[in-house]
Amino acid sequence: GVLAARQRSAELEELIRKDPGRFRVLTGDRPTGRLHLGHYFGTLHNRVRLQELGVETFLIIADYQVLTDRDVAERLDEYVEDLVLDYLAAGIDPERTTIFAHSAVPALNQLLLPFLSLVSVAELGRNPTVKDEIAQSRQSAVSGLMFTYPAHQAADILFCKANLVPVGQDQLPHLELTRTIARRFNDRYGNGAAPVFPEPDALLSAAPLLLGTDGAKMSKSRGNAVSLAATADETARLIRGAKTDPERHITYDPAARPEVSSLVLLAALCLGRDPRDVAADIGDKGAAALKATVTEAVNEHLAPIRDRRARYAQDLGYVRRILRDGNEIANEVAQATLDDVRAAMKTLY
Ligand code: ATP
Ligand code: MG
Fold first, then answer.
1. Which of 17, 154, 241, 307 is the S-S candidate for 178 at Cβ 3.0 to 4.6 Å?
2. Third-level CATH fold of 2-209+316-344
C-alpha cells in the first residue's frame, strides 16, 4: 500500500538523481476546474522538479475522463486553458514538457481495446478509488466509463512507454492496474527478450493527500479547495473557514489530527520548514494563529505563481499553440507505440 509506495518513491528519487535519462514521465489532470494546492504540492511541484532535473515529461489533459462522473463535460475549452495556465504559472516549460489532450490522440485511445481484454470485470470492480468516486459521483447510474477509466489511464501512461508517474495517493490503485496490464501484455504478446511496455512506478510527493477546508481530500469538484489562481483575500477567507478540531494546542500528528496536521503541513511546505517545528512555534496560540500562519505562507509562496498566471492569461493564442504542438508530438509517439502493439499482436501485416 501507501507505505511501500513511499519507500519506493525514496529509492526512485535516488535513481533519478543519478540518471535522469533513464526515466520518462507521464502525468496529468482532468480539465474539471482550476488546479489547487492539493495538485500543487501533491504532484505539480514534483513535475516541475523532474523537468528541471532533465527527465523527459508528458503532461496529459484527460478530457475524455471528465465524463467518468458526470453526463456532460461543461466549459471544457475554458477548463483546458485553465490547466495550461496553471502549468505554465507553476513553471512547466512547453519547450521541455509535452502538453497534450488525450481526445486529440486517436492512436492512444486505440490501446484501450487490447488493454481491456487483459483485465477482469472483478478486478475493475475491486478498485478502492473507483468505489470512492462512485460514492461521490453526481450521476444516478454508474457509467461503463467510470468502471473502466483506470484501464484508459493505463493507455494514457503506456502510450509513451512512461516508467514514472508523479501522483497523489488516490492514484496508487490505478498505477497497480497499469503495471498489471503492462505485465500481462508483455507475457501474452511479447518475446521475453524485449518487453513492449515498462511497468511504471508511482512517485509520491511529501503531500500525497492534502485535505480541503472540509477535512476531506482537497478536490476540484468538492468546493473545498484553495485554487492556485485564487486572490490573497479569497485564500484568507477559505483558510479561515477550514475545519480544525477542539484541541487548542497545535501539534503535527497526521494520524490522530488529520485536519490540523494538513494545515500545518501546508504552511511547512510553503515555508520550506519541518512541520513539527511549525506546529511547535504555534503551540498554545491555537487554530486562529495556525490559520493566519498558513494564509500568509500560502499567499507569499503563490504570489509569483499568481503573477505569472495573470500574464499568460493575456495570451490565450500562445496557450492554444502549446496544445497544438503538444498534440502533434503525442500523435507521433502514440502511432509508434500502436505500431509496436500491432506488430506484437500480429495485426500489423
Ligand atoms: P476532481 O475532483 O475533478 O476529480 P481532483 O481535484 O481530484 O479533481 P484530479 O484531476 O482527479 O484532481 O487529479 C490530478 C492529480 O492530482 C492526481 O495525481 C491526484 O492524485 C493529484 N491530487 C488531486 N488532489 C490531491 C490532493 N488533495 N492531494 C494530493 N494530490 C492530489
Ligand atoms: Mg480526482
1. 154
2. Rossmann fold (3.40.50)
